[in-house]
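Please go through the protein record below and see whether the fold suits the sequence. Record follows.
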Amino acid sequence: EPRGADIEFTTNVVELGELSRSDDKSYVRLSFLNTGDVPLVVTEVRTSCSCMTVDYKREKVMPGERGTINITLNPAKAPKGQYLRVMQIYSTATSGVKRVTVKAQIE
């Protein structure tokens, strides 16, 4: 009996360190693993800031295989100071919505 798809991230916190608002965009690849026994599809990724965009393929990730969510942070659009935003990742995983925090210090 299949248990379903499940999603496991390499990290739940993405640390971008110190950034200046004059810096170019920062790019991060967030990797995940399908730890379930049926194919997994990431259906939506929500960010809470217009300064952060995401790009991912809405295609099946087979059991035991990895997928990637590409995150782009534009410091010019971000507020100064401690930057803390939570991305919500929706998928066909049985465990439901996952949250990954993006942290930076923006000067």
In short: The two ends are 53 Å apart (CA to CA). The first strand starts at residue 7 and ends at 9.
